[in-house]
Amino acid sequence: MELLSLREMIARHVKPGQMLALEGFTHLIPFAAGHEIIRQGIGDLHLVRMTPDLIYDQLIGMGLVRELTFSWGGNPGVGSLHRLRDAVEQQWPRPLAWHEHSHAGMAAAYTAGAAKLPFGVLRGYIGTDLPKHNPQISHVECPYTGEKLATVRAVNPDVTILHAQQVDARGNVLVRGILGATREAALAAKAVLFTVEEQVEKLDAPMNATVIPHWVVSAAAVVKGGAWPSYAQDYYPRDNAFYQQWDEIARERGSFRAWMEHHVLGTADHRAFLQRIGEGRAAS
Amino acid sequence: MELLSLREMIARHVKPGQMLALEGFTHLIPFAAGHEIIRQGIGDLHLVRMTPDLIYDQLIGMGLVRELTFSWGGNPGVGSLHRLRDAVEQQWPRPLAWHEHSHAGMAAAYTAGAAKLPFGVLRGYIGTDLPKHNPQISHVECPYTGEKLATVRAVNPDVTILHAQQVDARGNVLVRGILGATREAALAAKAVLFTVEEQVEKLDAPMNATVIPHWVVSAAAVVKGGAWPSYAQDYYPRDNAFYQQWDEIARERGSFRAWMEHHVLGTADHRAFLQRIGEGRAAS
Amino acid sequence: MSYSKDEMMTVAAARLLTDGTTCFVGIGLPSAAANLARLTHAPDTVLIYESGTIGTRPEVLPLSIGDGELAETADCIVPLPEIFSYWLQGGRIDVGFLGAAQIDRFGNLNSTVIGDYDHPKTRLPGAGGAPEIATHARRIFIVLRMSPRSFVPQIAFRSSGGFFEGGDSRERAGAPGAGPEVVITDYGILRPHPVTRELQLSGIYPGVDPAAAQAACGWPLAIAAELEQIPAPSQEHLDALRALHARTDRAHSTLHPLPL
Amino acid sequence: MSYSKDEMMTVAAARLLTDGTTCFVGIGLPSAAANLARLTHAPDTVLIYESGTIGTRPEVLPLSIGDGELAETADCIVPLPEIFSYWLQGGRIDVGFLGAAQIDRFGNLNSTVIGDYDHPKTRLPGAGGAPEIATHARRIFIVLRMSPRSFVPQIAFRSSGGFFEGGDSRERAGAPGAGPEVVITDYGILRPHPVTRELQLSGIYPGVDPAAAQAACGWPLAIAAELEQIPAPSQEHLDALRALHARTDRAHSTLHPLPL
Predict the structure, then answer these.
(1) Which fold has domain C5-249?
(2) CB contact under 8 A, B140 and A140
(3) Dihedral, CA atoms, D33, D39, D41, D46, nearest 10 degrees?
(4) A117 to chain B nearest CA, in Å?
């Protein structure tokens, strides 16, 4: 593990054309890292996430995404991801290839990836149209019972990027609260990057806490508030109001571009981004 | 979940001929529950455990076991399980059928059982003789890569019995420390029984602690010291000295029977058992 | 006592949950109904959200399926892959509560696309947890407002299976759960015919004309031999639901300080 | 300075571990060697025990693979199935440290039976974690005292694979790891011939006659072209090992109060 600035971590480890997973199920979504990818304009990406959420809406809308593997592509509790829809429906700003799973299928694909098995097994996709459209879904016969079960091809990202609460002096990372498929996405990847709320001498980790040991972490960067508008348990809550505002911001291409230019491309780092959000809120 | 005395819990839920798993990897082995099965003479059992340990040596030596599914049958750090050996080598006190796995295979069998899949997949048993002797091991071909992988048939015990630290007023159970395959064994089973160190109003459980929710627990019994001579993290340490003594006790049929009659059959419950152990120690 | 169509629908859904039920909940109306049941007549309802929170007791409705409130009030939190393997596929869910964009007469759901899959007119969020919830939960409750655009003769895409092509086609496909038991709409309740498995209007809300329900359905909606008159929401349920929504609106419109 | 054969063997094994190595450790000599390395020249050795403890730093050697000491000093604890799937099969282990009852000339191990499997003369504990450690760890170190009964021409049962039938038969079988790199004995060190993969005596301890090693081996043991003269244990290693064993003996013979 090496501790870097976010800019350097992204520049050194994320390359055009890679398969990237920025995971975190509603919780601990690595927004700051996604924004830094946008600032550096790293494109032609194959993005993987169970729930693309706002951060992938932004990456897609900025034209950095070639392919998307996912299982639910909405704005949670609000509605559509308008930039994702525009890419799928109108190929704007570029065509998007997509590979669609159910949550159970995606979870099995990450789990197989973490275990370095070429496929995962589930009793899934029964009576659905998804297997017709996704060749990563197939079937296998149980050698004991003869039952036909669904399989999914393993997902092994080039780089998985996660956000977490703490990193300690040796580089161990603590993740607390809702985990989603973060551990599986981390262990399935060739390289694992973390943004964290803070560096501490010793993790605030009781026995059986979820800790990613330092020797599986490629690099980490301290980015306070790095999951905002998603949240970090015990640090700050989910900004549900922003998720609702995003519906309006992203609905039109023009308002989306203007917002991105002002808030992301127009700021040097995540602190400046948050300050700009704050300015907007103070003005309204 | 209903809270019962250990005697009543075993009498009500454990029946002759069942497939039972008393799990706990070195840690939290439910010795008191095993002794109660011996006191009640519930036999013809198919026992499942990764590491049979002393408690299965005792059940086997008492003639209560018809079949054994396992992956490592020794006295950890000490040597052989003499009663297990006697059953396999000399069919004493009765013949024993056994189904042998590697740890990775047993873990996959429990995991498949918990997921209610008929089989688990692993890149395992390569170049070993185990598949020749265990028909529960087979192979399957990856539908994407063509790789041949090992499979194990799922294990789904009739009853899984575990020991844990705490149960709360609603029946939720806290497990802290080394988990082994306890959660998988619990979720694979048709019924789950717990012995616990104590009942508390509210579990001493930080966020992300390992808690088994009350509605998957069939019954629980408070048995202080119920894992001894195994251990309960934060309550009492493993009695390594007893594990070493067991080698001598179990080596001969006569000394084994005498010890069991005096300590287990000759005591009414686990407290009396521990007192008798204490008397023996005071006398020596 | 007046109440809205959504209130009637939410209370009708909540009333179907008996105490002690283990319930796999999606966001929106299902979450409102399940929490209403827990806060009123069924306090020991076990709520499971796909984010991995088991036994949650939120004070306000979550906006997302992974709000911190769910983690803080849960009996335990498990990794998401485990929710789907050990808990859902593991056969531990009594009731799966689903919504969708479209439903057909056999309770199959579409939440994926309107139009052609590869070149959709409208791309919807997708299936998420629904396909395997629909397969494995012992019983399926569906909550959906009725209109000819949502209750359609033919869904564009089958995101999750109900009774497939009807009759015993679901059982023959090997789905372990019993399939859709009830569809709660804003007109009344639909249940499958015991043999054909086609959804029929089996209960109607106070003051609603069954013909209006039929007009709101995109296929010729049959009416069950015995049409239940569903009672209006009780004051207790209405009060609890309104208080829940008020707390929720307050919480979601609170501007939290930025983590600067 | 005098030292026992076991001390020489343990120190020789420990010295092979370089700092920062991720090491999957079994109980007994492997555990002693890996902990000795960690307490001396390789403080950042990452020890993983199959009980699910990752990054443990025990003060005393565990008697069992799941002693509380391992949990208390670990960076994290994961469920046992995960150790074998995500960590071992996941390709995250540099060195797997194995013992056994018997070894053959290709580094295949038997820890299962002496005699016929179904009617064994001696039933041994069995394979445990070894089969998949032997498959997946990048490098395999084997520690075993040498005698004609343990180094045998033909093992009764192959519990875990080394180089199978020799040559490239291991690679052809699809085992990802490189196989046995070294066998540390109480006479010296054996390494596989680069082509035939037959184990050869490649290093010898001070004052040991290679002919004595050959006599202790159940097959005609070849001697490598260059036979390394392995240095005696350093005082630092000996002191650390003796202190570790003394602490361990004290800890394991302590009678703890019964949990009454």
Answers:
(1) Glutaconate Coenzyme A-transferase (3.40.1080)
(2) yes
(3) 70
(4) 7
